[in-house]
Each structure stands twice: as C-alpha cells, then as structure tokens.
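Sequence, please.
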C-alpha cells in the first residue's frame, strides 16, 4: 500500500499561496493528475512516467504551468506523459507508485524529482511527526536497509482510527523527530538505487531531477556526492541557476512558482536531447513552445522544502 493517493475521476479547485490563487486540478481513472477531465492513458504509446512529491505534482500551479505539463507540450506527440507525483511523498512511496503502474504503459523513461527533504521523509512513517498541520488518512510504509543491502518493509500503512497510542509515547515520538539525530542517507540511497534498477531492468531510461537551491558546484556534483557510484543522469536545478532562483516560489509558500517550473521544464528537455531521447524534428522549435517566463534570463544556456494542502486523497 502507498499510504495515500488521489481519488480517481475527480476535479477539484483549491486556493494556493498568500494571494489565494484558485487552481483547478483534474485526476483520471488511476488518480494521476491530467490536463483535462476524462483523459485516459494508452498502454501502447511510448511513455514518460514522472514520480515524486508535490514538486512533480505541480502544487499551486495549473497542469500546463507545471514542469511536467510544459515538458508534455514541448515533446508533442512523441511521448505520452504520466504524472504520478503525489503531495507528501518521499522516495519510498514514489518507488511503490512506479512499481504499481509502470507495467501498465510502454514506459521508455522514468523521471524522479528528488528533494533533500526526502531523506527525512523516507525515515518517517507518520507525517504528523514532521508536519504538525498536515492532514492525512493514516501512516505510510517505511523501509530499512538489511545487512546485505536489501530493502525491507518495517512499517506498514495504518489508518489513524486503527491506531491506539498512549499520549506519552506520542510526545516521545514528536521529540525524537524534532530533536533526535538526523536520518542516515543510506536508506535514501538504497531506494534511489532500487528505483533506477527497477526502471532500467524494464528497458527504461532513469533520470533524476535534483531540485536544489542555487549553488556554485558543477552540474550533478551534489547528486554524485549523495549517490556515489550510481552513474545517474541528473538534471541539477541549482547549478548555473539565475540569481533570483531561490525566490521563485508561490507567494507565502516554499513551493516553486510558474517561473521555476518553466526553467525545470526547459532543463529536462535539454537533458532529453543530450541523451538522444527527443525527436530531432522538435529541437528547433522547443524554445518557443515553453510559454511561461522562467526565473532570470535563461533563454541561452543555463545549466527549490515544501508542504501541501490536499486536493482530495484516498487510502490505498
């Protein structure tokens, strides 16, 4: 079980940011976010599957404004795009979502959006311990790395109404989450390695979007330090970012705004071209098809922690 996912076949309007901008969100028959109601996926069309959290989902922006939607428009009919991003997910739930749905499509590419916050989320089963105002139906799966390096599920999802915990134990858990030692990155490394191996063993290319603040390191260097020896194809959002990159957030929130999504959509198209995954016929026109202005002036070569409100979720 995933812990939570979106209710299939719904359309919901929700306000985001300090300016209370209304955004309509559509979910299809598998609970994936789509650009219009009623859209169904085809199992035979070459597909790019996106997994991750609210950054992948497109919290606070319309589908067409999200980097997934902008990528979809840029590649045209070359790929079917499936957005499995869910608010609040870590690497573990993204992996489980991929394992649940990848076989349903002719998946050619898997794109996972990694945030440093996922290290903490992967070590946690109850999101209430991390985010006091979060609203969920229950807990999530949690894994550990065995002595031989394999992943073992040590916590299974439970509905909150099924849990009976003494108040003292709840306070101990809260104190540990806040003041205890930081989680080890080893679990996250094992989860990313498993996701990469799972995708590639089924013939897909695996791309990791490393969504970071602006930095001065070489593109991909931070990811190489976090995930040594994995030989990842990385889209590094902080490398060579414009000066205003760290301010490209929705007003009053720490979720990326339209400008940030535009930049990441463009970087992802660049990575597809570098890997030979984008059709040559669309290369010349790609800049014009990304309609939204990005952070800074990145029309030439240029090589972001969050929490979310829920647009409706279901236990499964």
């Amino acid at each position: 079980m995933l812990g939570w996912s979106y209710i299939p076949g719904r359309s919901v309007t929700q306000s985001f940011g300090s300016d209370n901008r209304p955004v309509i969100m559509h979910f299809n028959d598998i609970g994936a976010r789509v650009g219009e109601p009623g859209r169904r996926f085809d199992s035979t069309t070459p597909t790019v599957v996106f997994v991750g959290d609210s950054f992948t989902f497109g919290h606070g922006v319309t589908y067409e404004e999200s980097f997934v939607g902008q990528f979809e428009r840029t590649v045209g009919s070359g790929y079917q795009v499936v957005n499995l991003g869910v608010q609040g997910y870590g690497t573990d739930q993204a992996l489980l979502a991929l394992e649940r749905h990848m076989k349903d499509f002719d998946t050619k590419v898997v794109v996972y959006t990694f945030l440093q916050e996922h290290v903490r989320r992967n070590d946690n089963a109850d999101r209430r311990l991390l985010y006091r105002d979060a609203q969920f139906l229950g807990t999530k799966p949690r894994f550990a790395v065995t002595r031989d390096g394999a992943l073992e599920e040590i916590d299974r999802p439970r509905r909150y109404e099924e849990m009976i915990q003494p108040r003292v134990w709840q306070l101990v858990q809260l104190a540990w989450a806040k003041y205890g030692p930081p989680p080890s990155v080893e679990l996250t490394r094992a989860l990313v390695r498993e996701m990469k191996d799972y995708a590639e063993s089924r013939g897909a290319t695996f791309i990791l979007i490393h969504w970071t603040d602006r930095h001065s390191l070489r593109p991909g260097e931070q990811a190489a330090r976090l995930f040594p020896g994995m030989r990842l194809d990385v889209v590094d959002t902080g490398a060579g970012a414009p000066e205003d990159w760290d301010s490209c957030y929705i007003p009053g929130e720490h979720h990326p705004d339209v400008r940030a999504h535009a930049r990441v959509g463009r970087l992802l198209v660049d990575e597809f071209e570098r890997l030979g995954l984008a059709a040559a016929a669309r290369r010349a026109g790609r800049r014009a098809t990304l309609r939204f202005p990005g952070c800074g002036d990145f029309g030439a070569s240029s090589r972001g922690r969050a929490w979310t409100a829920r647009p409706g979720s279901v236990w499964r």
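The longest strand covers residues 106-114.
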